[in-house]
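Quick note —
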Amino acid sequence: MNAKYNPQLNLTGNREKPQWYKHFPGNPLEQMPLLLKHGYHTLPVAKIMGRHLSAPTEVKDNWRNRLQFLYTIDGVAYNEKGEALIILNAQPLRALNPESKLVELVSKHDGFELTTPDGVSKKVAYRGALKLSPEQWYQLKEEETTLPLTRAEVDQIQGKGYLLKNGIWQPENAAVGKYWEHLGRDLDLQEYAQSVAEITKSSAPVMVSYLDKNRYAQPVLRSLVMGRLFRNSPTVIGYYPLNCSQGSLVGVRGRRAYQSEYLDAFAPTVFHELPPVDNRKQVDKAIPYNTKFFEARNK
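Predicted structure written out below.
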């Protein structure tokens, strides 16, 4: 990892507890064990969205414009049918380490065509997805915090986001709406979309996502990666390799690690405090997750 192009950033405000947030730049397979060893929890998409809006002034630019290729603890799994699972707090991602078994050949095909927001077409065929067994796929699918997506819904989300319609920021289609409702947890998505539009000075769609449209010979798992808030930049990407040398993780201390300032619906016991992890064999221990919010929402 070249520190010149991926420097460690300060993400903690002057009035916040020292080192409350810590940036771990570099290959996620190498950085995840370090993050856990130092007593941090990896951030989910919703927490990063919350920091985009509410980070202290002195570190706000780092959160909005300088963090890129930010790998989150929220994952996206794909199967051979092209279906996807959007998994909040994907426990297999906590177990990443340099010995993790990744897919060597990206798929049975040669990649998929992707058109970026600025109109550039390119072929995407990234390797570096975590191998899953069929049993692991079905286990993840049954989790309370998983949103299953059909192949058609994956297509509908691709390159889409929130658009300004009649003065209100709205999802471009129903699939985009339920995808962001799930990822955003209890955030005000209209407020976030409006803020992103103001930050990026963009009238184009905001909160754009790109998922992996390759067809795999077996189930695989990737992290949902957040980009910086820049004009025409995608907000979430679901096809980057887990062994990307230009990637990074952000950790936060404390049991409220998976809460943003807006997630009052979550109880304060979302996570138990964890002692530092001394070896890789310990990192796959699950942390109890509070599902009360999701149960209430699904009634």
